[in-house]
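Because discrete structure vocabularies remain unfamiliar, we first show an illustrative case, written as a sequence plus integers encoding its fold.
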Amino acid sequence: MSDQFISVRETAQLLGTTEKKIMDLVEKNELQAYRIAGQFLRLKKSEILALKSKGTVAVETAQIAYTPAERLRDFIYFNDFYILAVAVILILLYIIFYVV
């Protein structure tokens, strides 16, 4: 695909905003979006660069604090299978070497 059309993620990075903000602008018809193959949403790079030069999209710099408890919860959520597998292996090794 040529670089004439860019994805929502690339648009957000180019404008320095979030993907949600880009989708909101598309839904409000402030940005023209095109569907490629009826599935992929793309925007014209030339239109995005023109919008950037006008400076009409506010750059979002707010960051949400990510606490250690949230990090631990996410780690367990995304790695629960591996944690469980290691626990089962350790229990089996304990049974093999110390109980039998």
Q: What stands out?
A: The first strand starts at residue 5 and ends at 7. Residues 64-100 form one domain.
